[in-house]
Task: structure prediction
Amino acid sequence: MAITRRHFLHSSAAGVAALSIARGIMAQSKNPNGKSELHYLTLTEAAKLIRARKLSPVEYTEALLKRIDDVEPKVHAFITVTREEALAAAKTAEKEIMGGKYRGPLHGIPFGVKDTHYTKGIKTTVATPVLANFVPDFDATVVTRLKNAGAILLGKLNLPEFSFGGETPGTNNPWDLKRSPAGSSGGSGAALAAGELPMATGGDTSGSIRGPAVANGVVGMMATYGRVSRRGIAVISWSLDRVGPMTRTVEDNAIMLNALAGYDPADETSSDAPVPDYTRALKRGVKGARIGIPKANWFEGYDANVMRGYRDGIEVFKKLGAVVNEVDLPPTMEVIDQAQRIIRISEAAAYHEPFLTNNQEQYGKSNVRRDVEAGSLIPAVHYLRAQRVRKVFIREMAELHNSVDIILTPGRPVLPGGQDKSKQNFSRPWNVCGYPALVVPAGFSTEPAGLPVALQIAGRPFEEELLYAAAYAYEAETKWWEKKKPQV
Result:
């Protein structure tokens, strides 16, 4: 039986009559001028409306596709928009919900994935001419899990070639179109900030979820190594790569990780540790939590706007009841970035060996070919030495966490588009040790005005719940995410 949008909206079990989408959500999401905007609904807001049948998955998907049409000429976040597939999936979701088969908070919610993620029957280019025509015959596990939760794939998001680099060529930051959205998950961050979708995935080898999340004013979680399957994800470094959720709010992020996390027998690095419901601990607060902050010398080269947001954030956590103290970071922190680079480039060279053998002339104009060729020349003794340093670093980090529950740092040393000359940017160390780290918006710069800054909240392995609780408490106190939106 054909189901019209009007039928869907009239058929709520509670008898809700919503003759138009705008009427149904007017109080839910408004721009500074008071006009209702479907595209800036949070995942949580949209899910509540869909479940109550005040919002049709089809009309929500159509609204986001319209938003993409409107802003993509400026932002360029997408490589591929799966328009027809998305509309078909939205109609299926609508029929399922009408039939009483509501799957949960992701049902009928559109999402995007970084174009490193295999998508069955849809090009996965990894932003390189080498794979320009590659069409996988299966979905990455994270794509499958989101689809199984009822979510709707809206498209594939931009990145630097093969995910190499901290910037995303071709994509513009919605907060200032002349600035970078960072990288490598820059398309994911920019699409979220621009209101093109409510959730996206990213990949993180050297900070590539967290950097773009900071630069675009959104939330990014790099969960514990092994917590989220990497099956069907183009590789940079097998022992460093992670995949994770990017959203506009902390609650949205926890909902998304609920779907992504869990053991995958097809991924040999996947952990079988039990997965909690990450939303249950959101409101438990941070009273009594022990937060460690690095000493001032570690912030050499940090932008003044960034440090202002960081210091303000420390005071917020003290107000919320956390116990904040300076800590001595492990001695290996001084050299861990160099170890990470050796591990990353050596493992990348192994992945790229067949491309270098058969497709070397097809690489783009980036530095990827140069870097992986250099990686192939690194002696095994240097790689093994880096792994030995890594082992010591992991032990030292475990010892540090005997006295602290959380390590709090700025999310990124510089503003979007700035040149990072810091002593330590606090991204790579958490890739090396495998611990989880989350970034949450912490306000905006004043000179220049209006660019996002953020905090990074990091903790012990498999304690993502604590990070979410801390981030949620901070977000509820500051409400940065709802105070301002890009004017694209």
